[in-house]
Specification:
single chain; alpha+beta; Tetrahydropterin Synthase, Chain A; four-stranded antiparallel sheet; rod-shaped
C-alpha cells in the first residue's frame, strides 16, 4: 500500500481526539463503559473516514475495487475498509530533468545531453486509470524520445539549433502523454557535451579554418594592390610629368624625418630630369650655392 493511500488528515486526528474525550466524559457522567467505547469507535471511524486534499490535489476513490469518482480539493469522506484511495495527484506544473549519455548522433559522434521538461496533469482521472505510475512513465518516455531525437540530428544541429530540438521533443512527448491526461508544455536542452579529444580536434579545425580565411583575404588584398599598381603604371606611362612628381614625393617622404640620407642610382636621378649637383644636394639635405 502506498504512502498516499494511508494518508491521515489532521482533521481526522482532531475528530478522533474529540470523540475519545467525549466518550470518556460520558463514561464519567453515566458511570458506564459503553459511552467511552462508543466514543473510541466513532473516533477511529472518523480518523480513517475524513480526508483532506490540498488545493492542487485530486484523488480517486475506489469502492470495492471499482472507480467511484474523484475527490478534492478540500474535505471529503470515504468508507474505511470498503473504500480505498489512489495516490494523490498534484496538478501543478512540474519540472523534471532527463539525461542521455554516450548517445550517437546522426554523424556518429557520442554526446551527453542534459534536458529539462515542464509538464502537468490536466486530467487526473486519466492519469490514475490509464497508467500505473505516470511519473516514471513520463520520465522514461522523455529519455527514450531524447535518445531518438539525438540519433536523427547531426552534432552541428544539436549545438546551434537547441530550440528546434526542444520543440521537437515537446511535440513527441505531448503526443505520447496526452492519452494519459498529461501535457508536456516545453522542453529545454541545457547542455550538449562531447568527448574532450573530439573537442580538441574541433578546436584545431576551427583554427585551421580561420588561418585559411586569413590567407585568402591576404591573397585577395595582394591581387587588388597589383591591379592598382597596373592601373597606375598605365597612367604614368602616358604622363612622364606625373611620374617625376611621384618620384619627388617619394624622396621627400624618405628624407623628411631626422635628416635621413637616401642613396639612389645616378640613372634614377637622370631619369627624373635633375642635374647631378642639384639632385645630390637635395638628397643630402644641403642647400645649393
Amino acid at each position: 500500500m502506498r504512502k498516499d493511500q494511508i494518508k491521515v488528515s489532521q482533521v481526522g486526528v482532531a475528530l478522533f481526539a474529540l470523540s475519545v474525550l467525549a466518550g470518556a466524559g460520558g463514561s464519567a457522567l453515566l458511570d458506564a463503559r459503553w459511552p467511552g467505547i462508543a466514543g473510541a469507535a466513532v473516533g477511529v471511524y472518523l480518523l480513517f473516514a475524513i480526508r483532506v486534499a490540498d488545493q492542487w490535489e485530486k484523488v480517486a476513490v475506489l469502492r470495492l475495487g471499482r472507480y467511484k469518482g474523484l475527490r478534492g480539493p478540500g474535505l471529503f469522506h470515504m468508507i474505511p475498509v470498503v473504500d480505498s484511495l489512489s495516490r494523490y495527484v498534484d496538478q501543478r506544473i512540474r519540472v523534471a530533468s532527463v539525461t542521455a549519455e554516450s548517445t550517437l548522433t546522426r554523424d556518429t559522434v557520442p554526446v551527453n545531453v542534459d534536458a529539462i521538461f515542464y509538464w502537468m496533469v490536466w486530467n487526473a482521472e486519466k492519469s490514475i486509470l490509464e497508467v500505473e505510475d505516470f511519473v516514471e512513465a513520463i520520465r522514461m518516455g522523455a529519455q527514450t524520445a531524447l535518445r531518438e531525437s539525438i540519433g536523427r540530428h547531426e552534432l552541428a544541429q544539436m549545438i546551434t539549433e537547441r530550440e528546434l530540438l526542444g520543440k521537437e521533443l515537446q511535440r513527441i512527448l505531448d503526443e505520447k502523454t496526452t492519452p494519459w491526461g498529461i501535457t508536456v508544455q516545453s522542453v529545454e536542452i541545457r547542455d550538449v557535451r562531447i568527448p574532450q579529444a573530439l573537442e580538441d580536434m574541433m578546436s584545431r579545425q576551427a583554427q585551421a579554418e580561420r588561418e585559411r580565411q586569413a590567407r585568402n583575404i591576404l591573397g585577395q588584398a595582394e591581387v587588388e594592390v597589383a591591379d592598382k599598381f597596373s592601373e597606375a603604371a598605365r597612367v604614368y606611362q602616358n604622363n612622364p610629368t606625373a611620374l617625376h612628381l611621384r618620384a619627388m614625393n617619394m624622396l621627400y617622404e624618405a628624407i623628411k624625418e631626422r635628416g635621413s640620407m637616401v642613396i639612389v642610382p645616378s640613372s634614377a636621378v637622370e631619369t627624373m630630369g635633375f642635374g647631378g649637383t642639384l639632385a645630390t644636394a637635395s638628397l643630402t639635405g644641403a642647400k645649393p650655392q
